Amino acid sequence: MNNLHTYIAATKGELSGVKLEASESFDKSYTDQGIVVSCIESIFHFSNGVVMKCCNEADIFEDNEQICPECWISYEVISESDETHICPKTKTFLNHCQEAFWLKINKSQ
């Protein structure tokens, strides 16, 4: 498997042809100009030696009624074997809806 979407799908519990072996998450939330920003960084380890980092940031508002609120989601391959050649190495989304759409489109190809 050499497409980044297969690894992202595996982190969400979807069958994608790669096996997620372990994951760890770190809460790196912070306050910026009085706004609390939730920041969760996760590291995923796959059976074929691939290691991927995901960072998910979102402003925390009490009355957020948006259907798909803005957030910042980034994925980065930080380690892989010579045989995997994952493409793209990084991917960024502006909300969960955009991420879900990208996964759906790539799954159908």
Entry keywords:
109 residues; 19% helix; globular; 2 helices; alpha+beta; single chain
In terms of DSSP E residues, the strand content is: 35-45%
Q: How would you state the average pLDDT, rounded?
A: 90
Question: Based on CA inertia axes, which overall geometry fits?
Answer: globular
The major beta sheet can be summarized as: 6 strands, antiparallel
In total, how many beta strands? 6
Structural class assignment: alpha+beta
SS element count, helices:
2
Helical fraction equals 10-25%
Low-confidence segments? none
Radius of gyration: 15 Å
Order of helices and strands: HEEEEEEH
In whole angstroms, the N-to-C terminal distance is 14 Å
In short:
The protein has 109 residues and is of the alpha+beta class.
Write structural notes for this entry:
- Strands 1, 2, 3, 4, 5 and 6 form a six-stranded antiparallel β-sheet that branches.
- The radius of gyration is 15 Å and the shape is globular.
- The model has no long low-confidence stretch (mean pLDDT 90).
- Helix 1 crosses helix 2.
- It has two helices and six strands; from the N terminus they run αββββββα.
- It has helices at residues 4-11, 96-108, and strands at 20-27, 30-32, 35-46, 51-59, 72-79, 90-93.
- The longest helix has 13 residues, at 96-108.
- It is 19% helix and 40% strand.
- It is of the alpha+beta class.
SSE topology sketch:
Blueprint lengths: L3 H8 L8 E8 L2 E3 L2 E12 L4 E9 L12 E8 L10 E4 L2 H13 L1
Antiparallel strand pairs: 1-3, 2-3, 3-4, 4-5, 5-6
Helix pairs in contact: 1-2
